[in-house]
Amino acid sequence: MHILLLGNGGREHALAWKLAQSPQVTKISVAPGSAGIASEPLVEQVNIALDNHSALSDYASSENVHLCVVGPEVPLVAGVVDHFEQAGIRIIGPRAAAAQLEGSKAFAKAFMQRHNIPTSTHKTFTNADEAHAYLDEQGAPIVIKADGLAAGKGVVVAHTLNEAHAAVSAMLADHTFGKAGATVVIEDFLSGEEASFIALVDGTHCLPFATSQDHKARDDGDRGPNTGGMGAYSPAPVVTPAIEKHIMRDIVEPTVAGLQKDGTPFKGFLYVGLMIDSNDKASVVEYNVRLGDPETQPLLMRLDSDLLSLLDAAVDGTLNQVQAQWKKESALGVVLAGGDYPSAGSKGETISGISDAEDIGCKVFHAGSDKENDSFVTNGGRVLCVTALGSDIKAAKQAADKGAAAITFARMHYRRDIGYRAIDRLVEA
Ligand code: GLY
Fold it and tell me: Which pTM does this prediction carry?
């Protein structure tokens, strides 16, 4: 079977790597892909832009593609699934109406209020003066979010009122995020421990994936600017079996039922970003309508089942008839970032040591790299994700750290403490 995969990052590399292991898969075309992803067996790059939905569906239909798998949120919010479905081509992901859960923070907040899904109190503003007045009433810490997609940069967790006012001015007066920041959501700060909970959904049924957790801050100790994620691991011990039950009962299932009730059923990966407080109560921080990056890299390393069979069941509405098997081992991924990430990426710096890292048992997923004269070079902010399995989270971290240390490129930066919270829990247990 021929698969068309959309995207070019570390998450898509992990998807291609896992799909290539399926006995049913004969070819994977990845658009636009990258040289690193195309180094996997069965994978070839196709030069079609993600916003050219007609060219993508023409390619899928002329190549007799069995299934299109969508990695990133932008094409989902732009309606690539609606387009493929109208053309009669199998695709996994939510239609544009359901993808609004990620495409509009104001939509997501109103949805949660309507369906009694736990989340922080919020207000939505388009007028800067009104937003500033609200900040003065509320005080800090407080969270300011651009309503639309802002490539992971539209959320400011303001610890002081000055930072909060600056964020509102940047979005509503200086238009830093253009249309995406023309509406802002201001919400109460939630304290606790963050976790990511991902489920595969077929419109009605949900298949929970193994738990995972990422580290969004750039620097050790969860300091420095917010990023798309500097590393991730699975399982996430903060999500105990009792908390997982609570998340499914009070958050994931009501979300899927609410979307169905609203006439916008959800198919695809539903990612719920959660804050778990000291009473083990989970609240939704954000929804994403796709797999997390870098959570996917450790998650798919632990998945023992055939990914294509799970995706096919989601498309066919039969997820209640399948189960996902997970390795008992833990997996952990360390992101190697370049340049001044997250403010600017790196380009053209030669990368060495990838095969050394793989020789010692790591899998190196390419996120922002390219190939020049047969060598890999940097081409982005998050360049690689070095991922490893281990008997527990500490062993997985040791293995991934060893792999990371084998790799070099100019101005490479990575966190040395990925997984520290899970390791602290191991010590406490
Ligand atoms: N790791 C966070 C995200 O994928 O949005």
Answer: 0.96
